[in-house]
Design a protein that fits this description.
3 domains; 10 helices; Helix Hairpins; alpha+beta; 12 strands; Beta-Lactamase; 461 residues; Heat Shock Protein 90
C-alpha cells in the first residue's frame, strides 16, 4: 500500500470517526430532549385533566354544568395518538376515564408510592406517566396518562436518514480530498526519489533539490545530501588511497624485480650475489612494512563493536613503546615525564592493546625520524584527569608548514622536507583512525624548523 493511499485512508478514518461521534451526540441529544419534552407534555396533560375534573366536582351536577365542563375540557385538551387518562381514588378504583378505553393496567406500585411524578417508557415510543393529585378533605388521587410519541418517532427517523446520507457524502468527499492533498504533499518526496534514482557512482557530486525548506521532506533532502557528501569524500579518499598504495607498492616490487633481473644477466661473484640479496632483502622489508601498515589501517577502520576492548594502563603501553623505539633507534633520546602524582587518577583507558601500542609507537618513531640530527631530546609527557588521559610527544626536529600540517592525516602524504626520511606516510593516518576507533582524538601542532608536538587524548575507563 502506497503512502498516499494510506494517508488518504487514515484521514478518511479520522474524519469518519469524528462525524460518527458527532452524529451520535446529535441523535442522542435530540432523542433525550424529545423524550423529555413529550413526557413533560403528557404529564402536564394529566395535571390539566385532574385539575379540571376535581374543579368540576361541585354540588351542581346538572346537565348544563356537565356540558360546560366537557366544552372546557375539549378546548384545553388535544387528543394524542393512542391517548388515555385515568383518575384513581386512594382505593384503586377508576373515578374518571378520558380517551380510548383499553385494558392497560397501571403499575401496582404506583398506587402505593408517595412520589410526586412517575414515568415509564416502553418500546415503540410508548409512555406512561402518573402523578398524585391532592384534594383538600378527600386525600390523594392517582392520575395516569398513556400515549405514543409518533412525532418524535417520525422526526428521529428522518434525522437518522439525514445523518446517514450526510456521513456517506462526507466520507466520499473526505476520501477524494485526502487523496488529492496527500498527492500534493508527497510530490516533493516523489521528486526526491526520482533524483535519488538518477545519482550513480560516476556523478556523486549531484545533490537533491528542495533542501532549502523547513518541512520534513527538506530535512530528508538535507540529510541525504549530507550523506552524499560523506560518501563522496569516502569515494575520493578510497580512490586516492588505492592510487597512492599502488604507487608505494610498485616501488619496492620494481626494486626487487630489477635487482633479480640484473643478477641474472651474468655470472657474479659471491660478494656480488650477496649484495643483490641484501638489496632485495631491504626492498622486501620495505614492502613488508608497507603491507603491515595497510593492514593496520584496514583493521583500525573496522566497526568498533567488532574490536575487542579491555581496560589498559597507558603508562605501561608507553614504557613498552619506549623500549621498542629505543631498540629500533638506539641513537634517539626520548625522555619520559609521567605526571602521575599519588592523588592523580590512574591512566586507565578502555581499548585494544595492539592498536593503541601501534599508535604510540607511530608517534614516538615519527618524532625520532624527523628530529634526527637534533641534539635536544624528545619529551613524552603522560598526564591524567578525571575524564581523559593525555600523552604529548614533543620533538625539536624539522617541523612542517601549516599547509602540510593540515594534510598529515591523508594516507601516503609526505611533506616536502620529509622526502629524505624513510617512511610511507601512513603512521599519522593510522594513529588518527585508531583514536577515532577508541573515541579519542589526536592533535598536531608544528612550526617549520622548530619542531612538532603530537597529543593523544583518550577517555578514562
Amino acid at each position: 500500500m502506497s503512502i498516499r493511499l494510506r494517508l488518504a485512508l487514515q484521514f478518511a478514518a479520522i474524519v469518519a470517526v469524528t462525524l460518527v461521534l458527532f452524529s451520535a451526540l446529535i441523535y442522542l441529544f435530540t432523542f433525550y430532549s424529545r423524550s423529555q419534552f413529550f413526557s413533560e407534555s403528557l404529564l402536564n396533560r394529566a395535571r390539566v385533566v385532574a385539575h379540571v375534573y376535581f374543579d368540576g366536582q361541585h354540588p351542581q351536577t346538572d346537565e348544563r354544568h356537565r356540558a360546560v365542563y366537557n366544552s372546557y375540557l375539549r378546548q384545553l385538551y388535544r387528543t394524542l395518538p393512542d391517548e388515555e387518562v385515568r383518575i384513581y381514588d386512594p382505593s384503586g378504583r377508576v373515578l374518571f376515564r378520558e380517551g380510548q378505553a383499553t385494558g392497560r393496567a397501571v403499575p401496582e406500585q404506583w398506587l402505593n408510592t408517595i412520589a410526586e411524578s412517575l414515568l415509564l417508557r416502553a418500546p415503540g415510543w410508548r409512555y406512561t406517566v402518573g402523578l398524585h393529585y391532592t384534594v383538600p378533605g378527600r386525600g390523594r388521587f392517582l392520575v395516569v396518562a398513556w400515549s405514543v410519541d409518533v412525532d418524535s418517532q417520525r422526526q428521529l427517523g428522518t434525522l437518522r436518514g439525514v445523518l446517514s446520507v450526510g456521513l456517506l457524502v462526507a466520507l466520499v468527499l473526505t476520501g477524494i480530498g485526502g487523496w488529492v492533498f496527500a498527492g500534493q504533499a508527497l510530490q516533493p518526496m516523489r521528486r526526491a526519489v526520482q533524483e535519488m534514482g538518477s545519482i550513480t557512482a560516476s556523478d556523486m557530486h549531484r545533490r537533491l533539490s528542495g533542501a532549502d525548506g523547513q518541512d520534513e521532506v527538506s530535512q530528508l533532502a538535507r540529510t541525504f545530501n549530507s550523506l552524499l557528501d560523506r560518501l563522496e569524500t569516502a569515494f575520493v579518499g578510497q580512490r586516492t588511497f588505492v592510487r597512492d598504495a599502488s604507487h608505494e607498492l610498485r616501488t619496492p616490487l620494481t626494486v626487487i624485480i630489477g635487482e633479480l633481473e640484473v643478477a641474472l644477466l651474468q655470472v657474479r661473484t659471491i660478494e656480488g650475489y650477496q649484495q643483490v640479496l641484501r638489496n632485495t632483502l631491504d626492498a622486501a622489508r620495505l614492502l613488508k612494512d608497507l603491507a603491515n601498515g595497510l593492514l593496520q589501517i584496514a583493521r583500525a577502520s573496522d566497526d568498533p563493536s567488532q574490536v575487542p576492548l579491555r581496560p589498559l594502563h597507558l603508562d605501561e603501553l608507553l614504557l613498552q613503546a619506549h623500549e621498542e623505539v629505543q631498540r629500533r633507534h638506539p641513537t634517539c633520546r626520548i625522555d619520559l615525564d609521567l605526571q602521575l602524582s599519588a592523588d592523580a587518577p590512574d591512566p586507565v583507558v578502555r581499548g585494544n592493546e595492539a592498536l593503541l601500542l601501534s599508535a604510540v609507537l607511530n608517534v614516538l618513531e615519527n618524532a625520532c625520524k624527523f628530529s634526527r640530527g637534533s641534539e635536544l631530546p624528545i619529551l613524552a609527557t603522560l598526564s591524567a584527569s578525571p575524564s581523559h588521559v593525555r600523552l604529548e610527544v614533543r620533538d625539536q626536529g624539522v617541523g612542517m608548514s601549516e599547509a602540510d600540517r593540515q594534510q598529515v592525516f591523508v594516507p601516503f602524504f609526505r611533506a616536502d622536507n620529509a622526502r629524505g626520511v624513510p617512511g610511507h606516510g601512513i603512521g599519522l593516518p593510522l594513529t588518527h583512525k585508531i583514536m577515532e576507533l577508541h573515541g579519542g582524538r589526536i592533535r598536531v601542532e608544528s612550526t617549520l624548523g622548530e619542531g612538532t608536538a603530537v597529543a593523544l587524548e583518550l577517555p578514562r575507563a
